[in-house]
Amino acid sequence: MPRHVDDSDPGRPAPRHVDGSDPGRPTPRHVAIIMDGNGRWAKARGLPRTAGHKAGAEAARKVLRAAGEAGVECLTLYAFSSENWRRPEAEINDLMGLLRFYIGSELNALHREGIRLRILGDHKAFQPDVARMVDEAVARTAGNDRMTLAIALNYGARTELVMAARDLARRAAAGEIIPDEIDEAAIDASLDTAGLPALDLLIRTSGEYRLSNFLLWQAAYAELLFVDTLWPDFDGDALRAALGDFAARERRYGGL
Ligand code: IPE
Ligand code: IPE
Ligand code: MG
């Protein structure tokens, strides 16, 4: 017998994905990007890695605008992984500085454009002033509903799943939920992405073919797109090309 989470009629038409994605939709509701290749972009120009990160922040600005114009409801950007702490302290400090600058300079524009900021991961581990700025930006934009920008900061998908398991276990121990009733929707609702549309398209730049601990659960039925472009060279046209690629895909979710 298939290991189905629900026990409804097996002869019914193929269900929408647990988190509500719609296989026939030509524009993805939720696009996530592993913004990779800043260092190589800088190296190719004889510049310090920081220059690559700065150019990468510019690319993020352009891509956010293009995504909004195309009708993407949620754009998720992988900005700092829980493994990126392995980098030299100077680079980590540069990245923090850039984040501080980006929030400082972009927050008004984001808010004006009706963009809600969400954070995936544990940004509390960042420098206190940066963590506070992030919290304030999230609070200030919480009521916006034109589009969501989710930024993954100190994010790792395995840790996200560990936290979800702990949360569910705690609630079960407290008698709030019954272990046998924990289903995919319950796990979905315990992740950092709770409430966001199902992930439709996951893009990685810079010619690397791996997920690097990003959205492992959410990517189960996302369309994957790996492009050689280094992140600072990715722009509105590159995003539109990716959306065109997505529109031509046939999503089957295991059905026919
Ligand atoms: C991605 O670019 C940005 C972050 C991980 C913060 P990289 O810094 O990983 O650039 P490459 O992969 O070394 O070129
Ligand atoms: C993934 O890129 C993380 C971000 C883009 C923030 P990395 O450059 O850290 O990934 P690996 O080390 O090549 O797997
Ligand atoms: Mg990299």
Structure overview:
α1 crosses α2, α2 packs parallel to α3 (89-112) and α2 (49-70) crosses α7 (236-247). The protein has a 6-stranded parallel beta sheet, sandwiched between helices. Helix content is 40%, strand content 14%. The protein is globular, with a radius of gyration of 19 Å. It contains 7 helices and 6 strands, in the order βααβαβαβααββα. By secondary structure, it is α/β, with parallel strands linked by helices. The structure holds 3-methylbut-3-enyl trihydrogen diphosphate (IPE) (2 copies) and magnesium ion. One 3-methylbut-3-enyl trihydrogen diphosphate binds at residues 34-36, 78-81, 84, 208, 210, 212. The site of one 3-methylbut-3-enyl trihydrogen diphosphate (IPE) has 11 residues, from β2.
